[in-house]
Specification:
By secondary structure, the protein is of the alpha+beta class. It contains six helices and 15 strands. It has three domains: 51 residues, Structural Genomics Hypothetical 15.5 Kd Protein In mrcA-pckA Intergenic Region, Chain A (Roll); 84 residues, Pseudouridine synthase I, catalytic domain, N-terminal subdomain (Alpha-Beta Plaits, 2-Layer Sandwich); 79 residues, Alpha-L RNA-binding motif (Alpha-Beta Plaits, 2-Layer Sandwich).
Length: 234
């Protein structure tokens, strides 16, 4: 099995994060620093990450969380901030968040130790739709809607076409549903900045057709078998 896939299967991290660990030189196979593309014989090889032995996970866990503001989507934070792991009722499991919502963004977050599912839901090539509820600082014009839908430039690169619709017009701004299939850093916020507007409130409400419902801020529950099957086949 390819080393990055082995680390993902073992619940250490996603394949993308595994590649980064391998490049850092902290992954060893039988005591030897490995290279990207190396294979692992799961029946006989010993794999360590930062000196800790890695074992293949025999059972995967899947959770959905309504992430509140003020938490970072990481297992550990070097700045000492609260992480989403602090909200888990039993945080001794080797779980990691699927993708990231920034510190000031709330909403639907999946946590698992299934690296393959993480890769599937986060890799841009799979174009998994993610829907956000957005409240803007100023009203959004029809012209801005067209620009957002057709793609705007973020850091010199144009975004893919996306679905943007106004759900409520307010005195001081607009409420919108925005569905994107990319996952760039702070993408939704930067999209509105590109049309000279700011996001006052941002919440992810859906991944594909999996909706955030029945969970208060900070609450978490296990995904149902039906929900897991949906994500596997999205």
């Amino acid at each position: 099995m390819r080393i990055n896939k082995f680390l993902a299967y073992s619940g250490v991290c996603s394949r993308r994060a595994a590649d980064e660990l391998i490049i850092e030189g902290v992954v060893k196979i039988n005591g030897r620093v490995c290279n990207p593309g190396d294979d692992v014989d799961i029946s006989s090889d010993s794999v360590t990450v930062k000196g800790k032995l890695v074992n293949v996970v025999k059972k995967y866990d899947y959770y959905i969380m309504n992430k509140p503001k003020g938490y970072v989507c990481t297992v550990k934070d070097d700045k000492g901030r609260k992480t989403v792991m602090d909200l888990l009722p039993n945080n001794n499991k080797r779980l990691f968040p699927v993708g990231r919502l920034d510190y000031d963004t709330e909403g639907l977050l999946i946590l698992t130790n299934d690296g393959d599912l993480t890769f599937k839901l986060t890799h841009p090539k799979n174009e998994v739709p993610k829907t956000y509820l957005v409240k803007t600082e100023k009203p959004v014009s029809d012209e801005d809607l067209i620009k957002l839908r057709n793609g705007v430039y973020i850091d010199g690169v144009k975004t893919n076409k996306c679905n943007v619709r106004i759900v409520e017009t307010l005195k001081s701004g607009s409420k919108l549903h925005v569905t994107i299939t990319e996952g760039r850093n702070r993408q939704v916020r930067k999209m509105f900045e590109a049309v000279n507007n700011n996001v006052d409130f941002l919440k992810r409400i859906k991944i594909g057709d999996l909706a955030l419902s029945g969970l208060n801020r900070g609450e978490v529950r296990a995904l149902t078998p039906r929900e897991i099957d949906y994500l596997m086949n999205i």
